[in-house]
Specification:
By secondary structure, the chain is α/β, with parallel strands linked by helices. The protein contains 17 helices and 25 strands. It folds into 3 domains: about 180 residues, 3-Layer(aba) Sandwich (Rossmann fold), CATH 3.40.50; about 180 residues, Rossmann fold (3-Layer(aba) Sandwich); about 100 residues, ANL, C-terminal domain (GMP Synthetase, Chain A, domain 3). Strands 7-6-5-3-4-8-9 form a 7-stranded mixed β-sheet. Helix 2 packs across helix 3 and helix 9 runs parallel beside helix 11.
Length: about 550
């Protein structure tokens, strides 16, 4: 696009616009508070410093290893603003996987929090592809490291604000790596234009009832900034003029304190994070701060039992759906035109679903012949999508890109149903579905039903090998109170009587555990659960 003929849809222009329209709105991290206007100036100084002091050039990939801090927020804008590419490194990966993703991305510069230095220093000779280390810290102390060359992040803020490159909206802005279920993680990348369009669509969708977000809201996302752009919230929230609270490293008692102190009205997380928030030891003390708190839940299906706990605390919880390859926003369970005039008790049934598509998302649910399944709320198929912000493919992996975009649609690998109102409900991951006697048993629906039993905490259902049926469901459960297997079975039989689940779905076995292993993004790690329960086969039926 010729800059004389229009305004580029870039991350830099998004920030300029936000600072112009909401100059006094705040971004908060601990004791740091900057207005949008101040933040914009800081970002431009950092961007100038990256260019003139560090030597970052257009197209260079700049990795970040940090918690959800102000430095991370500044990097979200400063790195793409100069035409470089932001690589949000998953710090919960083991060291060998962190190294793999950084080497595969060919990171040229690395922004790293000082507490991660020992790991990097230990393997320094392996990072010969890195041209410079930019080190940040909250301590205020002088930085010492054996990594060379290194730069103090604070020195970037002393830079004069220079003219920044004219960045094309079609230039790659970000890259990150998905959690690998088999093999190493896969890289996905997005352009400025894709990120800005996704932020626009998210802002529109989140303004709909009952979420009804406005510039009066205060957001504290509990989605790690290394995970799918923190669901795009660092961009959409500034676009919408919200006060933005950065949580830092997740400590749940202190998160409740931040919610109360900063008067947070909106958050977003995966179910396990919501569960940990609702079971924090100081919950009772901060319960009044949760009344009216809006919480968007994605990453995996929102269990009905967990939603009930949140509602009991006075929260509004609703579901959303997306994946790494889709930037991630695809659907949200706000009230669509067919639902908003229904009675309140009927409308509430839709909040636990994945929801309706965002603006500019074309979503289908198809059978094995690639035909649309009936929108009857019962017939399941795979979710396939198109939108302007879907990744063009896996980074440096054309073979898997072709598989992803088979038939010209992005294949999610998620199994879902759609009801007559157009609401999507995810019932399983293709790789996690329990296939018993030739029929699929939807593990997510079964988990949700089990979660509503009194005394049940978290639930994960996996398929166990069965000589007769191929597989049968097996449930792993944590306790939030006193509960027995017999009580859970009795609870499920009541749901069989009402037709909510089938008798065939009731698990053959239950195991109570202290905790359920999680992936690096907070989802139940069913791959590890299969290994624990079927160690002799490596977790395979």
């Amino acid at each position: 696009m010729d800059k004389e003929r229009g305004l580029h849809l870039t991350i830099g222009n998004l920030l300029i616009d936000a600072a112009s329209r909401y100059p006094g709105r705040e971004i908060v991290y601990g004791n740091e508070r900057y207005t949008y206007s101040e933040f914009s100036k800081r970002v431009r100084r950092i961007a100038s410093g990256l260019l003139n002091k560090v030597g970052v050039r257009e197209g260079d990939i700049v990795a970040v290893l940090d918690w959800d801090s102000m430095r991370y927020m500044e990097a979200y804008y400063a790195v793409p603003m100069i035409g470089a590419v932001l690589h949000t490194v998953n710090i919960r990966y083991p060291p060998e996987v962190i190294y793999y993703t950084m080497a595969h991305a060919e990171d040229r510069y690395v922004v790293v929090r000082d507490e991660f230095l020992p790991m990097l220093e230990k393997y320094a000779e392996m990072f010969d592809f890195v041209k410079g280390w930019i080190i940040c810290s909250d301590s205020g102390k002088e930085i010492h490291t054996s990594l060379k060359p290194f730069y103090d992040f604070r020195e970037l803020l002393d830079s004069e604000i220079n003219d920044l490159p004219d960045v094309s909206e079609d230039r790659m802005a970000t890259v990150f790596y998905t959690s690998g279920t088999t093999g190493m993680p896969k890289g996905v990348s997005f352009t400025h234009k894709q990120i800005v369009l996704q932020a626009m669509s998210l802002t529109i969708a989140a303004s709909m009832a009952p979420l009804s977000n406005t510039d009066r809201d205060v957001i504290m996302p509990l989605v790690p900034m290394f995970h799918v752009h923190s669901w795009g919230l660092p961009y959409s929230s500034l676009m919408g003029g919200m006060k933005y609270v950065l949580p830092g490293r997740y400590d749940f008692p202190s998160l409740l304190e931040k919610i109360e102190r900063e008067k947070v009205t909106f958050t977003a997380s995966v179910p396990s994070i919501l569960y940990l928030l609702l079971t924090a030891p100081n919950l009772r003390e901060h319960m009044p701060a949760l009344k009216g708190l809006k919480s968007l839940i994605g990453g995996s299906a929102l269990p009905a039992g967990l939603a009930a706990k949140a509602r009991a605390a006075g929260m509004l919880v609703l579901g959303a759906y997306g994946l790494s390859e889709t930037c991630p926003a695809l659907t949200i369970s706000v009230y669509g035109s067919k639902v908003r005039d229904l009675p309140d008790e009927k409308k509430s049934e839709f909040l636990l679903k994945a929801g309706i598509p965002f603006p500019f998302v074309n979503l289908r649910i198809v059978d094995s012949s690639f035909r649309d399944v009936p929108a009857d709320g019962k017939t399941a198929g795979e979710v396939v999508v198109r939108s302007p912000w879907c990744t063009s493919g896996y980074y440096k992996d054309p073979e898997r890109t072709d598989e992803l975009w088979k038939d010209g649609w992005l294949h999610t690998g998620d199994i879902a149903v759609m009801d007559e109102y157009g609401y999507v409900q995810i019932v399983d991951r293709e790789k996690d579905a329990v296939k018993s006697g030739g029929e699929f048993i939807p593990s997510l629906l079964l988990e949700s039903a089990i979660s509503e039993c009194r005394g049940v905490g978290e639930v994960a259902v996996i398929g166990m090998a069965d000589e007769k049926w191929g597989e049968r469901p097996f449930a792993i459960v944590t306790k939030s109170g006193e509960v027995t297997e017999a009580e859970i079975r009795a609870h499920l039989r009541k749901y069989v009587e009402t037709g909510r689940i089938l008798q065939w779905w009731i698990p053959d076995g239950f195991e109570f555990v202290d905790s359920i292993p999680k992936t690096s993004t907070g989802k139940s790690d069913k791959k590890e659960l299969r290994k624990l329960l079927r160690p002799e086969t490596g977790g395979k039926a």
